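Weekly modeling sync, notes
Attendees: S.R. (lead), two postdocs, one rotation student

Agenda item 3: backlog of single-chain predictions. S.R. asked that every request posted to the team notebook include the full sequence so nobody has to chase files. The rotation student volunteered to paste the first one in as an example of the format we agreed on. Action items at the bottom.

Example entry:
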Amino acid sequence: MAAPAPQLTETLKEHHWRPERHGRITALCVEAVTGAGGIRSLSHFSNGILDFVVGRTDRHPLSSMVTDPGDAAEEESLPGSRLLLCSQDVNALLLPLGTGELMRTVVAHGRGGLWGGRVKPGEYLAAIADDAGNVDLMDGVLNDLVTRIRVEVHRLSDELPGGDRKAKPGLSSVDGVRDPLRVDFGTAAPADPGYEEGLRARWTGHVNTTDLHYAAYYRDWTLVCAGDVFESPDLGHKFMNVSVRTRRSAYRDLSRGLRGHLVRLTDALNLVAPADPGRPAVERLVLDVQEGAVYLVWISPREFLVGVTLDQTQVGNADRQLMRLADAVRGITPPPR
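Predicted structure, as returned to the notebook:
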């Protein structure tokens, strides 16, 4: 008789867990973690209370934890819990932009990442990837899981967390398409025409009216340059309740408002693994709202880019477009001040 197959996951249930309330959702979570080997653990919360944790049986202890010994579920869920608490405060910063509620947060560095998201008001999921190479895998699996719970359990609509995988990416002027791009330079930009032209060319090659609608470059939290296509007629319907000027100012203010929250996001991420020496404490942050997303990507401990899309179907494409822009900006050496 063949030996039974080893269990790949374990489910840690809180005392209030009930099969009639949580059984179907738990089964979907177990299926998601079992099918995706890159997810360390997945936690489910209702109204701020932990319901259960699904984790890989081969996961190593989170040695950075400071919790009561023996409470495995609380320990494993702590990074995600802190991420969700911080996301609630970040949501308050995003709401004035008029693009809806924060649905999904991804924060990552070179050693791992966290995912936190809303299934519906009062119901949240959080997940851990303890290897940087598994963050994108975790992101895709959790986006699909949220949609399955919404559609199959709650009979709600798909909110497209992470965007529509079938959406076609945008074209830039490099591909023969001319978008009405506006680029402004900040006080951190050296007064060098060649340097400014180099940045402008890179913005022209990546910011477009389909996916990445806005991008800004900061050094030491001071603006180097920002460019957008907000004045395009193709985006006119996105500005019925807010002016282009107001939205531009709001995204510049947002980068300053997020600075304090990044400390809390770093603390949550450090519970999984601290960043490697000399690397940014956070290398990537995704704030996925109901109508688009805001992204932050660090290219050095002192420099980062902010990206924005206003189209929910293009959230995934805009994310990749900003990463390509970040790689292009890395190739520019600023002249001496």
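Discussion: group reviewed the output briefly. The first strand starts at residue 9 and ends at 13.
Action items: rotation student to repeat for the remaining queue; S.R. to check formatting next week.
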